[in-house]
Amino acid sequence: MKTFSKSSLIISTYNWPEALRLCLLSVREQSVLPDEVIIADDGSTGQTAEVIEALRPSFPVKLIHVWQEDEGFQLSKIRNKAIATSSCDYIIQIDGDLILHKHFIKDHLALSKRGTFVAGSRVLMDKSLSEKMLHGSRARIMPFQSGLGNFTNRFSIAWLSRYMADRYKTQDIFALRGCNMAFWREDLLRVNGYNEVFHSWGREDNEIAVRLLNSGLKKRAAKFAGVVFHIYHPEVDRGGCPKNETYLTEALLNKTVYCCQGVHQYLAHAEPVQLAEREFAL
């Protein structure tokens, strides 16, 4: 039987406390819990802190709130701060607009393997189902209920996920989403985490995947495993995509491994950052 490593679940969020609440409720119901949950908050107002503090007393694991000033889209930066704050060997990364299948953490830990990182997918929820869930008190989605897309992504099937892990789009850097990935922390530190030149939506997840592959890692797929249900929202502004495509192309052409603006700038100050952000949350 596989022995699981200690894991940090990093949840990125920005000013959607209702969705984050559902996400955290689904974390609380996991069949295997992470060892800590870190909220990577890219400048939300106090309402997000209130949701976190309301859940903290009944939360089954350590719940850490890492916050930074709202200076526009700074997802790479807040993820790096969360990675620096993490105290566990394995990092599972999601967004705060997801509801997790009850075996999400268990599936990811089962797929963890040295020398690899894991890329998962998502199931889209329509607007009607999303609004129903956001106004309810339960965070459980059934795979056959109406309002769900992406049929084959809805199911957690252990034997099939083991078969698919090293066979499904292992060379495709676009077959991944930053809202559902997992890494060994030491591998993230080796490539200096996320590249903070990304100041708008898009491609920061593909770019870090390129650098991880260039460092010698292999990509595994969480297919029929690591199931997440994405709460509907309008598409974000993609105006920064052309510039971000350039950064991605540079990493591909130059076979880049290490970025200059990354996680290492926070490592010496990881504990003070964590304490400061807790003070904000309180």
Protein architecture, described:
The N and C termini lie far apart (41 Å). The chain is built from 11 helices and 10 strands. Mean pLDDT is 92; it is low at 270-282. The chain has 282 residues and is an alpha/beta fold. The strands form 2 sheets. The chain has a 7-stranded mixed beta sheet with strand order 3-2-1-4-8-6-9, sandwiched between helices. A 3-stranded mixed beta sheet has the order 5-10-7. The relative contact order is 0.19. The protein has one domain (7-281): Spore Coat Polysaccharide Biosynthesis Protein SpsA, Chain A. Helix 1 (17-28) runs parallel beside helix 2 and helix 8 packs parallel to helix 9.
Short description:
With 282 residues, the chain is an alpha/beta fold.
Give a quick account of the main beta sheet: strands, pairing sense, barrel closure.
Answer: 7 strands, mixed
CATH-level-2 architecture: Alpha-Beta Complex
- Counted up, domains total 1
Task: Estimate what percentage of residues fall within beta strands.
Answer: 15-25%
Number of strands: 10
Mean pLDDT: 92
Distance between the termini: 41 Å
Principal-axes shape call: globular
CATH H level: which superfamily? Answer: Spore Coat Polysaccharide Biosynthesis Protein SpsA, Chain A
What is the H/E string? EHEHEHEEHEEHHEHHEEHHH
What radius of gyration results from the CA coordinates? 18 Å
CATH top level? Alpha Beta
* Multimer state: single chain
CATH topology: Spore Coat Polysaccharide Biosynthesis Protein SpsA, Chain A
Low-confidence stretches: 270-282
Helix content: 25-40%
Query: Which structural class is indicated by helix and strand composition?
Result: alpha/beta
- Strand order within the widest beta sheet: 3-2-1-4-8-6-9
Number of helices: 11
